[in-house]
Every structure is written in C-alpha cells, then in structure tokens.
C-alpha cells in the first residue's frame, strides 16, 4: 500500500504548476498529452480493481477515451476534462481504492489476481511506466519553449563540450549458459518464463557511450556518412534531417548544450548520451567498429554486476522484442502480442526518470527504431 500511494503521489506531483493547455496539448507525435497519462492511470486502476475483480464498471463504463486502442492520440487532449477537477476526482478515487486494498477480505481477497499481491504490483508498475511518459512530455514542453525563446534568450554553455576518443574499457563475458527472465509477481508476461540461454564469448563496454564520445561521431561526419547506416536508417535520417541527439542544440558560437525539463544546461562530457534512436545507436556502433548488445548479453552482464551505470539511460539492444518459449499473455490477452512485430527493439537498463519499481535486469522496454524522445543511449559490444 505504501508503494502504491507513493507512485500515485509522485505522478500527481508532476502536474503541480502545469496549466490546462500544457496538460491537454500533444507535444510530440509519439506521445499522448500529459493529462491523458494521468487519467489513464486511474482508469486502469479502476478497471482491474472494480470491473475485472468485482464486476463493477461504474468508473470504467465509457472506454472510448482512456483505453489506448479506442482513441487516436490526436483526439485525446481535446476530450480531457479540466485539470483541477481531474486531479480532485483522481485523488478521491485513489483514496477509496487504497481503502479497498487495505480492508479486502474474502471473497474479494480470494480472487486469483490478488495472489502474492500480483495486481497491486501490476498497477504500481503501470503507474511507473507512465510516470516516465509524463516526464517525456515535460521534456518536450521544455524543448518547444526553448526553441521558441532561443532568439530572445540565448544560452551559452559555461564549459563547452569537447570530444573524446573512444577507449575500449571493456569486460569479457565467457562462453556459457546463463539465466535470463523474471519471476512473478513482479515481472511482466514478456519477461516470462525464466530460462537459460547459451552465449558465445563477447566483450561489453563497462559504461554507456558518453556525450564526449558521441560528439566525436558527429565531428567525424557520422551523420553524413551513409556507410554507417542501415538503408531504412539512412532514409529516416535524410527525410527528417537528423544531425544530432534530440535534446542537443548549439549556440551562436557552435557550442553544444542540452535541453531537459528544467531548460538548457551544459552537457557533461562524461554523462551518458541520450536522445538517440535505434538507427543512430546502430550507426554509432558501426562507426566504432562494434555492435549493439543482444538483450541476453546485456542482461547477463548486468546480473553478474560486470557493467556500470546501468540506470543512467535506456540502452538500445540489437534485437527486437519476441516471446520467450512458453510465453503466456497475462493478465489479459494481447498484453505484449502487438509488440512482437519484429519492429519494436528492446532497451535495457533505465533512465534517470525511471521509477525503481521497474528497474530490474529482466525488464524488457521496447520502442520503434525511429523513436528518440525516450531517454535512450547505447552501450557497445565487441566480438
């Protein structure tokens, strides 16, 4: 109960100081409005605790807005209720749900979804995932504001970012059999079942690629050298005129700086680069004479505690999301199936915005190859 209340409070706190326009506006084509994530969270909480477990749909009868498949993203913002009223309604419903969970007794507590507090953990992790989605929206709000105000309020970094050579600070993982996957009640269905895999020898970088190392890729014309890019990646780069990580910008003296939810800031040379797509990560790896890790290589290295800084940025892997042998969709059909499409690439680790509830080696984040708003970077593997 304490964990659920904490993530509920943390999520609502993100809306302090937000106006109604920011709450309902769509700032990125791959993101819903921030307010939709807020209301979607309580909708899903009510759906499981009331409609599924108790057969009571008083809070979820209208599924036209807050079930993602029923409402196209551009239509979500205009349909949202007013922010202040939404927060008040959500707080009231969350208080009632918290009491329900604290006081549950048979026959309610006999429902199989309450076994080992599975549904509580499911709801907590759902909030955690959309907490980060809201942080992505806040980052996009800051980006739009900065570019709007940049001419009148320019930013000059106090410590200009300088490129650094790529040094092979790597660790060897020996050929062998290793465990991967998660366990109930904390894991999603796509993390199950836990099983063993075979790996050949490989060398993995101890840390993710840094800002300074990524700048060298830019300076070495990595964005204009077609040989480093896949065909689809090059077409995407050309079509969208991609020249640098999404949250990077340059001042009048061509010095790089970053923009986050708090505004412009100096890029630290040793911080992990983020704001790049799978296309960019793959191109960097080819330029570096390396490759991206398979998710099993990353998970094995993390479980053995042989790599560092695993919660700085989400780290792109070379493989797409796929079902493990023995996969069973749970707690509902199609919970992961739509992303087993050979298009969603796995990301491992966590970003600085990721809640601890989903920070685990087995967690399989996944996004499309072009998406770069997700606080994602990369780590290199050498054969």
Automatic annotation (TrEMBL):
Domain Sulfatase-modifying factor enzyme-like: 172-304, 312-381
Official protein name in the record: Ergothioneine biosynthesis protein EgtB
Gene source species: endosymbiont of Galathealinum brachiosum
Source taxonomy: Bacteria, Pseudomonadati, Pseudomonadota, Gammaproteobacteria, sulfur-oxidizing symbionts
């Amino acid at each position: 109960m304490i964990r659920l209340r904490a993530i509920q409070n943390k999520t609502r706190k993100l809306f302090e100081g937000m106006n109604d326009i920011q709450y309902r506006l769509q700032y990125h084509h791959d993101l819903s409005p921030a307010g939709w994530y807020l209301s979607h969270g309580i909708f899903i909480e009510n759906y499981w605790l009331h409609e599924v477990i108790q057969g009571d749909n008083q809070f979820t009868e209208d599924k036209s807005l807050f079930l993602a498949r029923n409402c196209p993203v551009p239509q979500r913002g205009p349909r949202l209720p007013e922010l202040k009223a939404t927060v008040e309604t959500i707080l009231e419903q969350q208080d009632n749900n918290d009491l329900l969970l604290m006081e549950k007794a048979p026959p309610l507590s006999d429902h199989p979804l309450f076994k080992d507090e599975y549904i509580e953990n499911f709801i907590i992790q759902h909030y955690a995932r959309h907490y980060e989605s809201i942080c992505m929206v806040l980052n996009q709000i800051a980006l739009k504001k900065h570019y709007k105000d940049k001419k009148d309020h320019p930013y000059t970094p106090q410590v200009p970012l300088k490129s650094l050579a790529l040094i092979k600070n790597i660790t060897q993982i020996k050929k062998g059999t290793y465990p991967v996957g998660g366990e109930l009640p904390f894991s999603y269905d796509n993390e199950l079942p836990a099983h063993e895999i075979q790996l050949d020898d490989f060398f993995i970088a101890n840390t993710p690629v840094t800002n300074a190392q990524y700048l060298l890729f830019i300076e070495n014309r990595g964005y204009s050298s077609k040989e480093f890019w896949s065909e689809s990646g090059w077409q995407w780069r050309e079509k969208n005129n991609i020249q640098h990580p999404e949250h990077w910008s340059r001042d009048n003296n061509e010095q790089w700086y970053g923009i986050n939810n708090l505004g412009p800031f100096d890029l630290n040379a040793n911080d992990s680069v983020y704001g790049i797509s799978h296309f960019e990560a793959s191109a960097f790896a080819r330029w570096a004479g390396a490759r991206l890790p398979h998710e099993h290589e990353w998970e094995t290295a993390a479980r053995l505690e042989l790599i560092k800084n695993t919660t700085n940025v989400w780290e792109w892997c070379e493989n797409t999301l796929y079902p493990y042998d023995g996969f069973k969709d749970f707690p509902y059909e199609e919970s992961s199936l739509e992303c087993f499409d050979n298009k969603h690439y796995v990301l491992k680790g966590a970003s600085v915005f990721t809640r601890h509830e989903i920070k685990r080696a087995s967690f399989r984040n996944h996004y499309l190859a072009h998406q770069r708003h997700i606080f994602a970077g990369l780590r290199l593997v050498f054969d």
